[in-house]
Amino acid sequence: MKVRPIQWQGSKRTETLSKLLATKLENWLLAWSVDAQLMASVQAESQDPGHAGIAWRMFTRGDQAIWVSARGDLDKRLGLLLTGVRSGDSAGIAGNIGARAIQDLVASLSESTGDWVVETLHASPDSKDIDARFGASRFAIDLGPEQFAVILNSALANTLLPRERVRKESTLVARKAAVGKTTVSLKVVMEMGEIPIRSGLEFRAGEVFKSGRELDQPIRLQAIDGRVIQEGRLAMHEGQRALQLN
Questions:
Q1: Bridge partners (DSSP) listed for residue 148
Q2: CA atoms in the 13 A half-sphere facing the CB of 29
Q3: Quick check: 82 and 99 in contact, CB under 8 A?
Q4: Model-level pTM?
Q5: 44-102 per-position pLDDT tens digit
Q6: What structural domains and CATH numbers belong to the chain?
């Protein structure tokens, strides 16, 4: 059974990824579009982007994956849009150009020059593969009159925007080192039982007050705020009163 770690990208990471993809999309347009006025934008999508029931194109390379929604004849429409030609005799050529442009777009977005395995899905991708809880990131791309969705899996998103790793030596230290020279006031508390207030008011110097507790019962060592730290027994050490901890 494959275990998928929970790793939300988070709003800040998603926003940064959107800007990163927008820059890559602009560079891609410079290489493919004959229309210098053609503009593109990238917008992060919600968990339910509303692309159910349409075909998707899945590109995989190692553990990285990217899905592109392919509503209708996306290759042809994209080819016509990029080349500026009208539908007709050039429709077949436009389809080939569009398919190559999409492959180059995937390579541009992923910063990879390696070969990608392409598969057409006639249904939505596996819900777990594109679940935001497992690090997938969804984006809507507007390219002039064309709109399509792009989903990056966690491996690809984390490659484009590496996560900061916690350095143990800089953030996690031993308790003794963290406390340093901090001091704390301590007090020893010996339970004496209860007596009438009147009896307490009649105490005189030299009197012996019997506590009602056994001699070997423990005495509490407390911080000044009353928090019990340890228990022990009265002792003598190097000529001074001491507490031998249990």
A1: 141
A2: 19
A3: no
A4: 0.61
A5: 886 555 555 578 899 999 889 999 987 778 888 899 899 887 666 566 788 889 999 99
A6: 10-160 (3.40.1550), 173-245 (2.30.330.10)
| Nearest partner of 143 among 189, 188, 97, 102, judged by Cα | 102
Helices (H), the chain: 10-32, 74-83, 91-110, 154-160, 168-171, 175-179, 197-201
Distance (Å, whole) CA 234 – CA 237: 10
Going edge to edge, which strands form the sheet with 56-61?
Answer: 40-44, 137-143, 146-152, 64-69, 56-61, 117-121
> How far apart are the C-alpha atoms of 50 and 65, rounded to whole Å?
20
The size of the chain, in residues, is 246
Residue 150: what residue type?
V
